[in-house]
């Protein structure tokens, strides 16, 4: 019971600040979390506008942070793009975050695909079935055909 009464007395801003203190959130994620705490849509909208104006919440910053975390996990650009869009980040902002990371040299998707593959498999596969298994692995990680092909070629060259 104390948690419910606390939720009713705390403002959307207090709840949002508490959430943002732990990690970055997209505007859509914050709106969902605040709505779950029974704040009115008008109060949520006003709060999120204020936080954005103050620089405390930024979808661009969230996209950069999310991208870095997914690169560290060895995920490819297709999966990262879908995940960002699912979290409410608009397509132009997603494209910008991916392009800026590539231009800044923070990520090389071809190298990342090769690294992910070499961590999981020691050779490209002797049979078409084994090769297809490696292709599916990388595809499920969000890499495109060219990146998969590069990773398989590189793994074959290392033998």
UniProtKB/TrEMBL annotation:
Domain RecX second three-helical, residue spans: 58-98
Domain RecX first three-helical span(s) in chain numbering: 13-51
Cytoplasm as UniProt keyword: yes
Domain of life according to the entry: Bacteria
Pfam families, per the entry: RecX_HTH1 (PF21982), RecX_HTH2 (PF02631), RecX_HTH3 (PF21981)
Compartment(s): Cytoplasm
Domain RecX third three-helical: 106-152
Keywords: Cytoplasm
Signal peptide: none
InterPro entries membership: RecX_HTH_1st, RecX_HTH_2nd, RecX_HTH_3rd, Regulatory_RecX, WH-like_DNA-bd_sf
Family statement drawn from the similarity comment of this UniProt entry: Belongs to the RecX family.
Its biological purpose: Modulates RecA activity.
Name assigned to this protein: Regulatory protein RecX
Taxonomic lineage of the native organism: Bacteria, Pseudomonadati, Pseudomonadota, Gammaproteobacteria, Oceanospirillales
